[in-house]
TrEMBL record:
It comes from Candidatus Berkelbacteria bacterium Licking1014_7. The keyword Transmembrane does not apply. This is Ribonuclease Y. GO terms for cellular component: plasma membrane. Pfam families: HD, KH_1, RNase_Y_N.
Amino acid sequence: MDLLVFWIVASGIVGVGAGAVGGNIVRKRWISQKEEKILTRQKEIILKAKDEALQIQEKAKDEEEKRRKNSDEIENRLRDREIMVDKRLDDLDAQRKDLENRRRDISRIRREIDEIRSKHLETLEKVAGMKKDEARIDLLNQVEKEYSADLVKKIKEYKQALKEDSEREARKILSTSLERIAGEFTAEHTSYTVALPSEELKGRIIGKEGRNVQAFEKMTGVDVIIDDTPDVVQVSSFDPVRRYIGKLTLEKLVEDGRIQPTRIEEVFKKTTEEVNKQIKEEGEQAAYDAGVPGLHPDLIKILGRLKFRTSYGQNQLKHGLEVSTIAGILAQELGADVNVAKKAGLLHDIGKAIDHEVEGAHHHISMDIARKYGLSEVVVNAIGAHHDDIDPKTVEAVLVRAADAISGARPGARRESVEHYMKRLTELENVTNNFKGVEKSFAIQAGREVRILVKPEEIDDLASLKLAKDIAQKIERDLQYPGTIKVNVIRETRAIEYAK
């Protein structure tokens, strides 16, 4: 029994040992297979990397070969160009040497010609018995005497042809421009008279011991003129906006009937707000009508103040719109900058809105305002150059000046006092009468033409042309006038005899 147990135990131990040995052998085989797979994978990766390296190396060699070929080609082209440049330099050197030789030859020939001419002049002076300058003057005098009629005829022909061409082109441009202005601009007469429903309202306006009228004048900054004219009170001020506000304020107070200091202050403030709003709206509408967007808001307000400003009875806001329209059309016809012409035309008189507050000529004030609000120097020059003391630097500036003259000089645009009108015509005649050879002169067509009769024994046809030009320049230099003045010099010879 003991032997049997021993045998069983021994057999178990041997079995277990044999199993362990078998397991180790299997594990070693699995590990060996895994290592073989890893080695095989490594070999495959190494081979693939070597193939890729070879491909990259071959590609690099190909690119290097291409670069080498390109550099060889560039080097060959540069070499060819260098050879060509050297050849051209050689040709230029040869041409320069040839030119220098020709210049020397020309200088030598000129010296020889001058020597020959000097000898001939000396010979001629000895033969003629007069110097070269004397002979030239004598020759010119003879030619002028013999051919003065032909010269006058030629000058007249050229002037006539030039005049016809220029007038034809000017008529075409102006007619095209003016016929496109559909709006009708008339002279506006601003009234500063307030009508009263009854005469007793004058007393209420004055108030007790002048309390109401003093409060009104202090509040509005205008003068109230109460005279013997029935049912009428006048409002006066150098500031057109202030005058307009005072007029509206007084009209509202008269309509309301309650006239006392507190009510005056209340109505004045309300009216001022309404007028300021109206000024802004008028400026915006003017900019819109002129097609000039993007103006500064403060510039718009100054522009709107021109609604209440007149010059010779012409409303300045409408005048600015008219000048902007005409200048824009002229610029379009001539191929100039339409925007510059329209903007400068609209703002050319904007200085008149504040010329009672700022010292200086209105066109200088207009230029300062334009610069202040960032307008370009081209527009600034076009604004200021509509008067003669500032030279126009662009075509647009000339067009604005022409448009301003057209707007101001057209019939019915402006009005002036009879005294000023007569003084202007007298000055025009006096300027022409001071010229030598003038017999009489007449200012006609409301000063747009001056007709000059000359003495035929003192002024010939050639001198009459020069006289007309000199008088026109004198008028331009010494007189101030709207538009243009035609200088018409008339020379006639009359022969009178009596048959007995």
